[in-house]
Every structure is written in structure tokens, then in C-alpha cells.
Amino acid sequence: MKTKSILLLGVTLGLFAGCERPQGAATNSVTFADTIYSGGDILTMAGNDPAYVEALAVKDGKILALGPAAGVLKTKGHTTRMVDLGGKTLLPGFIDTHGHMILFGKNLMDADLFDSPDIPDLLARMKAHAPNVPAGQWIVGMGYKARVLKEGRTPTIEELDTVSADRPVMIVDGSGHLASGNSALFKVTGITAETPDPVGGNFSRKPDGKSLLGPMEETALNAVRIQRPAFTGDLADKVVIGAAELWARHGQTTAQEGGLGLGADDIAIVRNAIDKNLLPIDLYIAAKDTATDDTINAAYSIASEYNRHPEGTSLKLLAERPDLDKRYINRVRLGGIKFWLDGSPDSCWMTKPFAVNPPGKVGEFLGYQQIPDAVLDAAFDKYWTTNLQLNMHMLGDAAADQALRAIEKAVRKYGMRDHRPVFIHAANIREDHLARIKAVGAIPSFLTTSLSRQGDSVARLWGPERAAKANAANTFSRQGMPFTFSHDAPVSPVPSVIELVDAGVNRIAPSGAVLGPDERVSPYAALRAVTATAAYQIKEEKTKGTLEPEKLADLVILDKNPLKVAPTDIRSISVMETIKEGRTIFKTAASTASTATGSSTTVASAGCDCTLRPSLIPRLRPLSAVDRDALSRLAAAAASGERSTR
Fold first, then answer.
1. φ and ψ at 631, to 5 degrees?
2. How many whole angstroms separate alpha carbon 418 and alpha carbon 441?
3. How far, in Å, CA of 144 to CA of 154, rounded?
4. Single pTM value for the model
């Protein structure tokens, strides 16, 4: 794709007479910048083709001016900090369009089961982790995949009893949709073989049907997981701070919790973050469908506490946000509701059978429908005309069918709205879905690393034809339809956006095979999926996603330009620095970008503790009882879901 530079001819007025005036610069008066960046590639991400500027100026957390260096430098004052990028690349901060930051923060305290090769190794990891877990707390691990384990199955109750015979033990697979537990876990949660399976899930039983086997899927897992003892006090702080620092380390200035309510303490944890103003980055929240009422009720409670008047956020809070976005309270915003229409790659709802059944499945397996049509239809009746976006998890094509039916019914009843429903993962979109998706303004958010991390096993499960068409980003690109990329961490073991870009561009499976070469996108299209289009998805495109005057100075600095390296080298690119509203919130020790104040003095980078502190990867410690009253108060995001007027 041909690259162009932005050449701004400008008006020759005032201080800028005789030189090109940058975008955003005043014509009759000068506002001096806090910081000016130059000396590297500054990629604006504005438009369908790559565009660069020579310099960018920041003032009070927003972009003051950008364009030719001669013009931007006219905003330099005696206290302006000059940053020489040293050949590095600056672009808009990355936006998380579907992750689970709160859940990930909790998982920082769990045993790491990713890449476990067999059950003995998994059990050894759990046993090694157990001494770190205080009495009264569950011993939890996450990350294994049954189809990857040598035994080809999930560990049983008896095997997990060897980790602990009297303390609850739970292991959750890498998708978050399948788990297993020991005898103590099922005893404390009140689950027996006689417990009815919930709609959209099941508890596995032994052949006699009279005792539990251990594994549990989907909604059955949710019924157990929500009973996990709460994270409170200092530990609740560390859940948020530790996760947010990891998001920042990977270049993200906006995070997401796409399922608040998976844990009974989620609302209290986020409420704590709001009250203590813990977040260095913005957090968009989508409430879990079954926790929506509690979440919305609590949102109004928080709004009334933080607002001087019911109709708007207090002037004090607004003054702390350069964009004056009244949907945010202390960096938290309630943006939507999350529905799970189906499950993982092993259990997604298909119209045609799996090519090879997942472990434990027999016969013609089509996966699971998790939510009845009537429930989803009722949600659209309630929320289609509001500003709460419906985010729907779907991997199988049958789940996409269900989502489209519900949206189309809402359009017929209430008319078309700028709702922007989100199709999370949307792995198996068929050709006949495309026109319908475009007509209702839906946006797919592809988990591109599902192919780079587990593409070979997915191809065996679904068959090579479906795998080649999965995450059909280039199909959407050719149609001129928006799409985004998302990591779904902790489904991805790290919240890396660079990995998403790499996977979308290359689609290389662990075996080295390219799965669906026709669905590869250009590096620029991949970057748009985590910046400009990502901002559009969450309805914040007026202040985020591109480098333009008056937008937030949410920035990321990379050691190399993804558009100027070989596509297969994108994966090796590192985030050097992350800047939220003009303030550095992460910086690597290896970063060599030099700074100067005024005209000559070389100084250190902006004052912040920019390293990922080991103390923020917390260890488990004794917890107090969960504050049940907190469940009625949202640690959430918006005052009342009112439409932004930015």
C-alpha cells in the first residue's frame, strides 16, 4: 500500500507566518505545548491509507498540533518537553475491544497451566501452587487444553483430589468455557450428580450416572465459578493495578472487562477501583447478561454519589478528563452488556457437525446453544434504543444466525439505530451473513491469535475449509465493512496487541502452515483494527483511535514500524512506551528516546513509575468475607448511559 506524508500548507497568520501551519495550531495566538514528539515515524492512522507527520505537540492531555516540524515547533515554550523518538514509531494508543481485565487480574494469582503437555504435568503445577494459597481459598489454575493434553481429556475428580483432598481445587481451560473440580469443590458449591444441568451447559457424570466425573462446561462452570471466595481489601487493589499495568505494557490506553459479573465480587472490585481512582487507563465495561440489573442499578448509585446533579457528572470529575466524556467516572465506563450465545472452539454452536468431535463427545456434535431466542429477543427489546451496546460471544455460524435474527427483529420493531452491536470472535461467518451484518451495522471482533496459537487443532476440529475461512478479516475489508481484533485475555495468556496484528497479517499456525491465506490483511488494516476502528466499535471515535487535533494524547511508541518490516517480523516488535493523556504510564528500561526541557537541558522521561513492579503481581493472602452489599453498587462506568455529545 502506497504511503503518503501529510503536507499541511496552512494559513500564514500570526506567529506561523512564513511556515506551514500544523493541524490544530491557532492562527492569532499561541498555546505552548507540554510535550513535542519528533525524530521518528509518527503514523496518524487517520484515513484508509498510511499518513505520517513530522512532529506532534501535546497540551493538557490532548493533541495540540501535528504536521510539519517547522510549524509544530512554533508551539515550543520554555517548559516544553522535547522528545526525540530516535527513529522509533509513534501511533495512537491501542484499544482493547474485547478482553477481561478484571478476570485476568484475578488469574494473576492462579497456577499457570498454559502449554501443559499432559495430566501429570498439570497436576504437578497445581501441587506446586497449592502452598501459596491460604487456608479458606480455592486452589485454582487456568490455561490447559484437553485436546492438547497427551491423554486427550480433562482431568477427573479423583485426579484433582491428589492436589488436595479437603480444599476446593478448580482448573479452567484456556478458553474459560471448560473446567474440572475435585470432591471438595463440588461439596462446597452444593453440586451433586442429581443437580440438574443448566441450560447451555452440563456437569459430566460417570457411566452409572450416580456420581460426578469432574468436568463441567459453559453455564455449569459459571454456576460454580461465581462462588469463588472474594478478592477484597488490598488484594482487590492489586487485581486492578496489576492487570492495568500489563495492559499498559502492551500499549493499550483503553481496556475492557467484557463480562463483569463472572465473579460475585466483580462489582465490588471495580467499585473499589473507582473510589480509590486506581486506574491509569480507561476501562470499558460490558456487564454479564445475568448481572446486568445489579450492574445498572449500581451505576445509578455511583452516579448519584459522584455527581452534584443527577443530570450530569460533577465539574470536578469532568475537569480531570481532557475529553470531558461524562460517560466515564474515574476512568470507568459502563458501555454494554455481554451475552454468550455459544462456547469455545470445542463447543461452539454450528449448523454442520464438527469434523472431529472434541474429547468426550460422541455422535453428530453441533456444539451448544447457550441462550434461548426469547431471552436474546427480550434483551434487544430492552436495550436496542439505549446507548448500552449488546456484545455477543459467538464462534459458530448458528450463533451468528441467532444474533442476526434478534437484531433484525429489533430493527423491524424500533427502526435502525446507531447501536453498533458487537459480534465477539465471529469465527464462522458465512457468505450469506455479510449483507445482513452490514445492514444492521454490526461489527465483528476477531480473536486472530486463535489461529496462531491453536490453529492446527482448530482445523482438525472444524475441518480445513472452515478453519481457512475463520476470522474472515479480509472478506470484511474487501466489502468495506468495519472489523476489529481482540485478545480476549486471559484466553490469550498475555494481553498482547502486537500478537493480534501479527496473526491477522500472517495467519500462521503453530505447525507453520498458513491457514486461509486469502483472509490475511495488510499491516495497516491490522493496525486500524486495534486503533481507529476499535475506537469506532466502542463509540469513542471522536476522541480516540487516530492522531488528530483535540483528540486525547493516548499514544504508543514501538521500536519498529509495523509497515516497514517484513510481515513475519511484526511479532518481534516491542512496545517501548505507553502514554495516556500525555502522561507516560509504561516505559521500558531499554527505551532510548531522549527528552529535553525548553531549549537545551536533557532530562529523564516524564515522572512516573513506568516499570512493571513485581509487587503488583500479587500473591494470594487471607481474605475477608465478601461484602454482599457491594453487589448492588456498580463499580462501573457510566453515569446513566447518556449519549456523548463530544
1. -65, -15
2. 7
3. 9
4. 0.84
Contact status, residue 52 vs residue 564, Cβ threshold 8 Å = no
Which is it for the CA torsion 7, 11, 12, 13, positive or negative? negative
Q: Name the more confident of 26 and 374.
A: 374
Beta bridge partners of 100: 257
Query: Which DSSP state fits 114?
Result: T
Cell of 586: 509504561
Long-range Cβ contacts of 9-16 (<8 Å, 24+ apart): 10/67, 10/71, 15/74, 16/71, 16/74
Sequence-separated contacts (24+) of 418-423 with Cβ below 8 Å: 419/384, 419/389, 419/390, 420/389, 420/536, 420/537, 420/539, 421/389, 421/390, 421/391, 421/392, 422/97, 422/98, 422/336, 422/389, 422/390, 422/391, 422/392, 422/537, 423/392, 423/394
Rounded distance, CA 274 to CA 290, Å? 22
Whole-number Å distance between alpha carbons of 155 and 172: 11
Q: How far, in Å, are 322, 472, 482, 541 from residue 479 at the CA level?
A: 36, 11, 9, 21
Gap between the Cα atoms of 273 and 101, Å rounded: 12
Q: pLDDT tens digit string along 203-232?
A: 999 999 999 999 999 889 989 999 999 988
What pairing do the DSSP bridges indicate for beta strands 51-59 and 111-112? unpaired
| pLDDT of 13 above 90 | no
The domains of the chain, with CATH numbers, are 4-92+564-610 (2.30.40.10), 233-333+616-632 (no CATH)
DSSP, collapsed to helix, strand or coil, labels residue 536 as helix
62-84: pLDDT as tens digits: 999 999 999 999 999 999 999 99
Q: CA–CA distance from 338 to each of 3, 200, 268, 285, 575 (Å)? A: 38, 16, 19, 9, 30
Q: What are phi and psi of 375, to 5 degrees?
A: -70, -45
Instruction: Tell me the backbone φ, ψ of residue 188, rounded to 5 degrees.
Output: -70, -25
CA distance 559 to 577: 9
Element spanning 416, H or E: none
15 pLDDT more than 80: no
pLDDT of 641 strictly over 60: no
Q: How far apart are CA 637 and CA 209, in angstroms?
A: 45
User: Average pLDDT over the chain, rounded to whole?
Assistant: 86
Cell of 625: 468475607
Beta-carbon contacts of 278 under 8 Å, excluding residues fewer than 6 positions away, are 237, 240, 241, 244, 272
Distance CA 266, CA 226 (A): 10
Per-residue pLDDT at 491 exceeds 70: yes
For residue 628, the model assigns a pLDDT of 26
* Averaged pLDDT, 165-182: 94
Exposed (0-12), middle (13-18) or buried (19+): which is 614, by Cβ within 10 Å? Answer: exposed
Of 14-23, 78-87, 626-635, the range with the lowest mean pLDDT is 626-635
The 10 Å Cβ neighbour count of residue 596 is: 15
252 and 245 Cβ atoms separated by less than 8 Å: no
Distances (CA, A) of 201 to 45, 188, 428, 632: 42, 20, 21, 27
- The three-class DSSP label of residue 410 is helix
Strand partners for 312: 309
Of 71-85, 104-118, 155-169, 310-324, which range is least confident? Answer: 310-324
Question: If you average pLDDT over residues 581-592, what whole number do you get?
Answer: 87
Residue 313: is its pLDDT beyond 50? no
Judged against a pLDDT cut of 70, whether residue 179 lies above it is answered with: yes
Return the pLDDT at 16: 28
